[in-house]
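protien #1 (seq + structre)
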Amino acid sequence: MPARPMVTAAVMLAANALALLAPPAHGQQQLKRVEITGSAIKRVEATGPVPVDVYTRREIERTGATTISELVKNLSVFDIDDQGELTNNSPEASGASSLQIRGLSERNVLVLLNGRRLPVNALTDVNEGGAVDVNLIPLSAIERIEILKDGGSAIYGADAVAGVINFITRRNYTGAEARAGYGISSRGDAKETSAGVIAGFGDYEGQGFNLLAVLDRFKRDPLLRADRAITSSANWTRFDGGNGADGRSVFHPVGNIIDPTLGQVRPCPAEDLPLDPDGLCLFDFNRTLLPSINGADRWSAMLIGSLNVGIGRAFAEATYSRSEDEFAGHPAPGFVVDAMGRTLLARFTQAGPRISDRKASLTQLVAGMEGSAGPIDWDFAVGEGTSRVTNNDTNWIATDRFLAAVANGTIDPTSDANPQAAVDALRLLPTRRGKSVLRFVNTKVTGQLAPLPGGSLAYAVGVQFDRESLSDRPDADQQAGNVFGSIAQGAVDASRKHAAMFGELSIPFLKSIESQVALRYDRYSGDTSRTSPKVALKYQPVNAFALRGSYSESFLVPSLKQLYGGQSQGGETTDDPTICGAFPGHPLAASCTGFPYLLVGGSNPNLEPETGKTYGLGFIVEPVPQLALGLDLFRINKRDEIGVLTAEAAAARGNVATTPLGEAQVFVLNQNIAQTKVEGLDLDLRLSVGETLLGRMRVRNAFTYYTKNRKQFEPGGPFFEFNATFLLPRWRNAIQVNFENGPWSTTFLGRTTSGMRDSDQPSGSVENANARKIDAYDEIDVTVQYTGISALTLAGGVKNLFDRMPPYSNEATQGQYGSLGFPWIYSPRGRFFFVSASYAFR
C-alpha cells in the first residue's frame, strides 16, 4: 500500500487503540417506536432485517460539508461522480450532481425527500435518462439521512434497484437559528460563502401547530484549470515519467490543414511547438479560460407546516430551490472547407468564448394528513414536483452560415481581423428549456393483526398514483445540428401514468426471529406491468448478535428521455487503434494520435424494462455496549440493462460513418444490451467510549468492497470484469473520529479510495493488461467546534489537510471523461480552510 493511503489506516488504528485504553462508558439506550427507511411499519428497534445507515444532523455538521454532493463523499457506499461539478461543456450535466450506488447508474438509486419522490433533472443525458439533481436539496433543513443499502422495491418502487437515500427534514422546531460560513483554498482561490436561517414557531405537542421555515444560500467561485499543476496544460507528457498523454486539440486557431496536404494556414505559435507526428499544431485548451471546478450560485427555501385537526396531523411542505451558473468555453472547434478547397481543423477565436447561462429550479409542493384510528395508523399525501432548467448561450455561430462564409472567402477562420459585421451575422443565441413534472397521490395504512410469540403481526398496505412528464426543447438550430461545434440536441415531449399497490408484513415468529415479506404491483402506461416481491429475515439468538438476509426483485422501466429523447452527438478524441482502424481512409487515422471523432448517442422507443434480483446477507455483533460491528454481503443481478456500447465496441461492430465534411462518427444508441452482476460487502464499525486523553471519543468507520462488477454486452456473450478499472475502484473507506471535551468538539475525517487500472476496458483485455495503475488516494479533514458561548456555535477546520492532489490518469485526458487529467471522482482543489458561526435565538 502506498504511503499516503496508509495515513487513514493509521488514524483508525490509533482510534481503536485509544478506545481499548479508555474506561467503558455506562448507560442504557432508550428504545422507541420509529419508522425507518426500508419498511412502512413502525418498529421498536431501529435495526431491522435489512441494512440501513443513519447519519444524524450532528454527524452531518461534523463533516463541514456545505452541499449534498460534498457530504456523500464521506459515505463509502456512494460511488462519487463529480462530473456535473467538473464539466462545463455539457448542456445536460453541467452544474448538476447525482448519486450512484453499487457501481450502477444514477437511475438505480431512489432519492426521497421525507419519504417522497422528487422529479428528475429536466435536462439529463439521453443515455442515463434521468436522475435527481441533489444540489437543489436544502442541506440546512435536513435532520438526518437514511440510506437503505438494499433493494427497496416493494415499499418505495420497483426501480430502487441499488438502494434508497431518504433526506428527512426537521419537524416541530421552535426558535430560530442563523448561520454563516466562509471557505477558501490555501492558494487563495475557489472561495465559498454560505448562509442560512431556520425559524420555527409553535409547539405541535403543546399548542397543536408548528410552522418551520428554512432559507439557504451558497456561492462558490470557479477554480480555473490553469491554477493547478495537474490541469494547467492539456499536454500531460510531464506525468507518468514522461509517458503521459498529449491531450491538446488538433482544432487550432491557426487552421490545421488535412486535405490535400498537412500543414497550417498560419504559423504555429511558439508555445504550441513542436508539431505533433502528423505535423499538426495542437491547441492547449487547459491553459486559459476553462474551470476545473464550476462556479455555483444557489439558494433554497423550505416551509413546513403542521396542524392538529383532531383526527390527526395535517401538514403541508413547500420547497423551492434555484441555481444560477455561468459556464465558459473556448470558441467552437470544427471542420471547415475554405475558399481554396482545403479542409481545415478550425477554431474561430474571433467569435469569442462560448458562454452558457444555466438557470435551474426545483419546486416541491406536498399536502396531506396522518393519524391513528384505534390500532390503525394512516397517512395520505398529494403533491407535485417540478424541475426546470434553461440554458441560454451566447457567442455561438450558425453552422450553415459559417461554412458558407468560409467557403466563399467572406470569413477567414484563422484570422481575428474579419469585418465585425460579417462575424456578427453568424451569431446565434441558442436556448434550451427543460421541464420535468411529477404529480403523485400516496396513501398508506398500517396496523397490527394478531399476537405472535415474538410480538405482534404487523402489516402495511398502500397505493400510489403518479403522472410523470418531460419536456426538453432545444431550439430549432440545436435540434438541426446547426450550432457550430455543439452536439445535435434531440427534443422530447412525453408523459406517462403509473399506478402501484403494495403490501408488507412484519412477522415476529419468535423473540429471536423476525421476517419482512412484501409484494408490490406496478403498472405503467402502455400496458407495462410487473409484480415485485421482497423477503427479509432477521435472526437474533442473543442480544449481542443478529444475522439477517434479504431477497428482492427489481423492475426499472426506461426513462422518458431514454425512450423519446432523440439523438445527440459530441466531439471526442482518442488514441485507440480500434476506433482509428474503423476509418482506414481518414487522413488522421494512420498515426492515431488524438484522433477526432463524433460520438453519436440517442434514444430508442423500443427499449424494454430492466429486471433484476438483489440478495443480501449479513450480521451485526455488539459484544459490549460501546462497540457495534455490521457486515453485509450484497449481490445484484440485472438483466436487459439499458446502456450503450463503448466507442471501441461500437467501432469494432462497424457502427461508424463519415460525414460529407470528413468527420468520423461512432454510433452508440441506447439498447437493452444484456446483464450486469455486482457483488461486494459493506462493513460498518462504531465505537462509543468514555474518556480518553483527548476527551470522550466516538468512531465510525464505513468500508465498501467490491468483489465483482461484471458486464455482458450482448445476449449469450461473455461477461467482462470491470472491477478496479477506471472510475470503478475496488474499495472505499470513510472514517469519522470525534472527540468531545467540554465545549470543544474535534472531528477527524478520513477518506481512502483504492487504486485502479488506468483503462475503461475490462480485465483480461490487452489494453487493460498494458495500462498503468492509478495510485490509491486519500484525504483527511479536521473540524473543530466550540459551544462555550451561550447560543453561539463556532466551527473551523481544514479539508484535505495534507494538500493531496488527485492522481494522474491517461484515460481522463480523453474528452469522454472531462479532459482534466484525473478521474472525476476526485477534486483538484487541494487544502481548503473554512470557518462558520451559528447563533440560536430562543
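ok now protien #2
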Amino acid sequence: MTRPNVAPAVALPVSSRFLPVLPLLFIGSGCAALIYEIVWFQLVELVIGSSAVSLGVLLGTFMGGMCLGSLCLPRFVSPRAHPLRVYAVLEAGIGALGLLIVFGLPALGNLYSTIPAGGLPGIVLRGIFCGICLLLPTMLMGATLPAIARWVEATPTGVSWLGFFYGSNIAGAVIGCVLAGFYLLRVFDMLTATYVAAGVNATVALVAWLVAARAAHPAPARSTGVSLAAPAASVVYLTIGLSGVTALAAEVVWTRLLSLMLGATVYTFSLILAVVLVGLGLGSSAGAYLARIVRNPRSALGWCQLLLPVGMGWTAYMIARSLPYWPVNPSLSTHPWLSLQFDVMRCAWAILPATLLWGASFPLAIAAVAVPGADAGRLVARVYAANTVGGIAGAIGFSMIVIPAIGTQNAQRLMIAIAAAAGAILLWSQPGAAGAARNGARRVPVIAGMAVLAALLAVSVAAVPPGLIGYGRFLATYTSLPTFLFTGEGMNSSIAVSELANGYRNFHVSGKVEASSEPQDMRLQRLLGHLSALVQGDPRSVLVVGFGAGVTAGSFVLYPGIKRIVICELEPLIPRSVGPYFSKQNYDVLQDPRVELVYDDARHFILTTKEKFDVITSDPIHPWVRGAATLYTQEYLELARRHLNPGGVMTEWVPLYESHADAVKSEIATFFEAFPGGTVWANNEDGHGYDLVMLGQPGPTHIDVAAVSQRLADPANARIVSSLEEVGISSLFSLFGSYAGQRSDLAPWLKDAVINRDRNLKLQYIAGLENNSYDNASIFDEFTRYRRFPEDLFVASDDWKATLSGEAGLQRR
C-alpha cells in the first residue's frame, strides 16, 4: 500500500529486552482503571442520579477526558522525555487523584446540591460537576498508551507491540472489572476498592521508573512526525471512529437486551462488561499479530468492518430467537455462582464474534497509518482519539436518542449499516498505485456482495420478544404467555403491559413484573398510599418515587385535603403509556390537576429540591436491580427524612419474594438506622409472607385510632373506605392488624444485618445474588417470631388493643 508522505525521521532505538515487561505494566494499569471506573460511576451517580441523561453526561465526560488526554500527551510532552518515566508519573498521578476523588467527592456533592436546576441548565450543571470530578484523572488515563507508544518504533514489529500493549491493558481491565464487581465491592466497599486500585497504580509507577533507570532512551536527533492530512490516513481515522460508534452502541444495546434475559443485577452488568473486554482483548492480540505479518493492514481493517455485520447479525439472532428459549429455570439453581457461570457462557456465545473484530480493528488501524520513524506516540494518540470520539457518539447517541426513537431492533440494523459502510469506504478508497483501476474494478463485486449480505442481515434482525420484556430470565418456564397490550422501549427501560386470561393486568419493566391488578399487588400498592396518609393524619403534599401502574400515587387522589402530588419517574415512557391501562385502579391519577410529573432520578430530585412533604413513599422498586440500592441507603433515607414536614411519614417497600433473609435484614435494619421509631407492616398472601411496608416518622409514631376512625366515617372520605375494601381491608382491625414489628422487637434478628450505605451499596450485591430465591414464607416466619404487640404505637382503649392483638395473633407484654 502507499504510505502517507512523511518528513525524514530518525528511528528511535528500543531496549527490546524490556519490552515483555510493558504488557505486565499495562495489565496493572487496566486493572486499576476499571476499578476506578466502576467506583467513580457509583460515587457520581449518587449525586447526579442514574437516569439516561445523567449516565450519558457521565460517560461522555469519562471518555472525553481519555480522548483529550491521548491528544494532549504528544502535543505537550516532548519525545525526548523518557517514555517510561512519563508513564510512571501518569500512573502515580492517577492513583493520587483516585484517592482525592473518593474523599473529596462528598464535599463537591454538598456544593452541587445547593444549586437546583432542571432541564437544559440541569444537564449543563451535571456536565460541569462530572468535568470537575473526572476530567483530570481520565485525561491521565488516556495519555498512558500514547506515552508508552514512544518506547517502540513505528514499524510493523513496533506496531504489533502496541497492539499487545493495548490488549494487555484490556486484559487488566477484565481483571479489574471482575475484581471490583464480584469481590472488592461485594465484600468490602468503595474506599477499599480505591485503595487497591491506588496501590496497583503505585506499583506500576515504581516498576516503570526502575525499568527506566536501566533502559536508556536516547533523544531523537530532531522532532519526528507524520503528515496526517493525507486522504488515505483520514479515511482510516474515519473508519476506526465508526468502529468506535458501533462498538459502544452495541455495548449499550446488547447490555440492555442481555440484562432482560439474565436479570438486571449489578453482577449481570459486570459480567457483560467482562465478556466484552475479553473479546476486545483477544481480538486486539490477534490484530497485533496480523499487523506484523500482513502486507496490507488497511485492507485487513476494512475486512474487519465488513465482517462485523455478520458478527452483529449472529448476536441479534442469539438474543432474540435462541438464548431466551434455552430450557433454563433459574430458580432450580442450587447456588447463585452456578447461575453466573451459565450466564458467562451465554454471553460469550452471543457476543464474542463481534467483539473479536472490534478488538482487532484498533492495532490494524495503527498499522494502516504507521510510517517507520514517525512519532509513535502521536500516531497512537490520533487513532485512539478517533476511536474514542466514535465511542462517545455511539454510547450517548444510541442510549439517549436512537433507542428511544426507533427501538433496539432498528438500532441494531443501523449498527450493521454503519459497519458495512465503514468497511466499504475503506476498501474502496485504497491508495492509488499501478493497476489501481483494475484493482478497483475487482473490489466492486466484493463490496457489492458484502453490502447485499449486510442488508439481508439487517432485515433479519428480530424485535425483542414481548415475553422477554415481560418475564426475562423466566421466559423459558412459561408454556403459554398472556396477551401483550403494549410493549415499548424507552430511554432507561423496556416496558410492557399484559393481560391474563382472568382479566388481571401486569405491568412489566425490563424482564420482571413491577406492578399488577392482582389482589396481593393491589393491596400492597394501596397500603403504601393509604397507610401513609392515615398515619400522618392530614397530609397536604405528597412525593411518590416511581409511577409504576400509578396505583400508589392514585391512592392519594381520594384525599381532598391533599393539595400537591409530585411523582418522580425515571422513565418518561411509563406514565403516558402504562397509566391508561390501569386507569380504573389508579383513579385516572394523571388527569388530576394536583399531580406534577418530574422526570428525574428520585434521589437527585430530593437532593436538589428545597421542597418538603407530608408524605414520601415509593411505588415498588426491586432492590436487586442495579442502581435501586441507592434508594435504600441510610444516607438516602436520612435525606428523605430531612425533606419531611413535622409529623410527616416515609414508607418504603421491602419484598420477601425474589429475595433472601440477608437482603431483607439489610433493608429493615438500614431503615431503622434512619427512622429509629420505624415500624414494619405485612402484606401477606394466603396467610404467608409476600412483602412488607416500612413506615417511619422523624419522631416516635403514635396512631390515634379514634381520629382515623372518625376520618373514615366522614361521608367525604367514602371513596377512601371503598378503596381499602376493594383490596380486602374492611376495618381498622384488618388495616392495623398487618403490623409486623418494630426495632426493639426485631433487634435480635437484625443483629448481623449489613447496613446499606452510600460508601458500600451492599444491598445490590446481597440482593443480586439471591434474586432467583423464593424463600418469602420462611423469611416471614423467621422474623415474626420476634414481634410483640406495640403497646405505645396505638392511642386507643384497652378493649380495642385487646381485640386487635387477638385478631392479629400478637402477644401482649
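The longest helix spans residues 376-428.
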